[in-house]
Amino acid sequence: MATKSMIIIGAGLAGLSTGCYAQMNGYRSHIFEHHTVPGGVAACWKRKGYLIDGGIHFLMGHRPGQPIYDLYCELGIAQANRFLDMTLYGRFIDEAGGRSVEITQDLDRLAHDLKALSPDDSQAIDELIAGARAMQDLDMSKTGMASPPELMGPLGQLKQMWGIRRALRYFAGKYARSAADYAQGLRDPWLRQVIENLFLPEVPVWFILMLLGLLAKRQMELIEGGCLNFVLPIERRYKDLGGQVTYKATVEEILVENDRAVGVRLADGSRHRADIVVSAADGYSTIFKMLGGRYVDKKIENRYKNWKLIRPMVMVSFGVAREFPGEPWLSFITLERPFTVGSQTIDGLMLRLFNYSPRFAPPGKTVVQVAFETEWDFWNELRKDRPRYDAEKERVAAEVLERLEAHYPGLSSQVEMTDVATPYTTWRYTRNHRGAYMGWLPTPEVITTRMKRTLPGLANFYMAGQWVLPGGGVPPCLYSGRHVVQILCHQDGKPFLTSVP
To answer: The whole model's pTM is what?
Structure first.
């Protein structure tokens, strides 16, 4: 059988993963990437000697013996990275109330600290901690990532249920409600905010329990070198396997003949043909622009019309001539004095201190990064007037720095670098629809939806990435690329390989 050729759109995590597994299994692949570097939303960039990490916050499943660790090994990630155990998820700070609490891996201590905040919520806290304990030994790959829906079948679904049997009751009932909905039953208003914002208010409670369980099991980690150290080994693995990448190559159209994908047309007008086309790019752009909306059904139309997207973010990074010994890497601050961006009131900030590795800043210095949710339409309109756009970025950076000064006196005078990334920045470099850096908002309905990697009526075409594995994140994106090649191997009647024979 002649070697089949494959074009992959996008060199993010899903595209690189697809390429690696394609090469391992005898497909000849070529990735076309819009940006000048790999990684997609898993992005790093340098400013005045500081490394700004704008992507991966933390990872899961980095220890040997876990299927996700095996995935990292297959893609060359584990061999090239040093992972740092997270003993602390983060610290929550209530400025108005003068309270704070740390979300620690010690579940006994966590239960004690939460009850100290709100003794009246002791029963609910005990229930949450019990759920976290039940999730400690959960195999993440058994929650829908191990196989694509096309190859699952009834027996596969049964095996999946068996794999999570010890924690099965936490995937139903009140734990299947959103964190925000569940938190309404708590008596203390600020404890409600803590539970709601452990991840996103819309995620199901079982997702929060899973995070706490993985933290307690020491299965959550930081990357010593940030996104760049995570992404570059996958690109190197892909190239070592014989794969080809072309950067600054924006795909504008997926070429179709007789309802079969046959190649792509780039923005420069060049056409490239292949036996198989895989889009690991933005879902909306792929389906409704590159393919002109011709291959959809009611389910797909409903998703892109009615499902909510992850709210985009503004990310303000400062390079400061200061160290932060003993400070947690992540804090969530409820502001006593909110400020306004567009029509939105910003009443909380997520603060990251890159104090856990010397890779991000010169000696004695630190990258301090603040992020908050914002409105796509406001920034997208504003960017049409560049002076106003730049002025608003400067104003927002000043507002954020003023709030940080209350926690770290003297910080303003120590700033050497300021960088502001808006939702438009995210779109400009990744083309993610409306700046949605993780695709769909992972509501209880969305996060449990199984999506096919194909489109109705279109042959030789597949999708990988966060738009076909709702919830986004690192392991799902990597698994989605694996899924595409598993499907191809099944169709071609050959075994699926995870290494070079």
So the answer is: 0.95
Give residue 154's pLDDT. Answer: 67
> What range does the domain containing 238 cover?
5-44+227-308+441-491
Q: Which of 370, 381, 375 is nearest to 403 (CA)?
A: 370
39: in domain: yes
Give me the torsion for CA of 215, 220, 226, 227, rounded to 10°: -120
- 276-279 and 5-9 beta bridge pairing: parallel
Q: For 18-69, how does the pLDDT look when each residue is reduced to its tens digit (9 = 90+)?
A: 999 999 999 999 999 999 999 999 999 999 999 999 988 899 888 888 888 9
Distance CA 88, CA 66 (A): 21
Give domain status of residue 67, yes or no.
Answer: no
Cα–Cα dist 439/432, whole Å? 8
DSSP 286: I
Tell me the one-letter amino acid at 497: L
> Which of 192, 217, 242 is at the close of a domain?
217
Evaluate whether residue 139 is within a structural domain. yes
Residue 320 sits in the same domain as residue 264: no
- The answer to whether 449 and 425 have CB atoms below 8 angstroms apart is no
Residue 382 and residue 356 share a domain: yes
Is residue 266 classed as helix, strand or coil in its secondary structure?
strand
Q: By CB neighbour count within 10 A (0-12 exposed, 13-18 middle, 19+ buried), where does 172 fall?
A: exposed
Instruction: Kindly state the tokens that stand for 158.
Output: 């049964």
Residue 12 belongs to some domain of the structure: yes
Last residue of a domain, one of 386, 409, 430: 430
β-pair type (220-223, 59-60): antiparallel
Rounded to whole angstroms, the Cα distance separating 300 from 293 reads 10
> DSSP secondary-structure letter at 3?
P
pLDDT at 156: 63
Instruction: Order the strands of the 99-104 sheet from edge to edge.
Output: 99-104, 88-94, 330-341, 344-353, 366-373, 313-320, 415-421
**405 and 354 co-located in one domain:** yes
Do residue 238 and residue 335 come from a single domain? no
Question: What is the pLDDT at residue 410?
Answer: 97
What tens digit of pLDDT does each residue of 432-457 get? 999 999 999 999 999 989 899 999 99
CA distance to 60, 208, 393, 401, 460, per residue, from 369 (Å): 22, 24, 14, 10, 43
Do 108 and 213 share a domain, yes or no?
yes
For residue 312, give both structure tokens.
């985009």
473 pLDDT exceeds 70?
yes
Report CA-CA distances (Å) from 112 to 106, 181, 329.
10, 24, 22
Q: Both tokens of residue 20?
A: 């690696």
CA–CA dist 62, 75 (Å, integer): 13
> In this structure, what are the phi and psi dihedrals at residue 100, rounded to the nearest 5 degrees?
-155, 155
Rg (CA), the chain: 23
Length of the chain: 501
> How does pLDDT run across 139-186, given as a tens digit for each residue?
665 555 778 888 877 666 666 665 666 677 888 899 999 999 999 999
Count other C-beta atoms under 10 Å from residue 45's C-beta. Answer: 16
Could you tell me the pLDDT band of residue 364, with boundaries at 50, 70 and 90?
Answer: very high
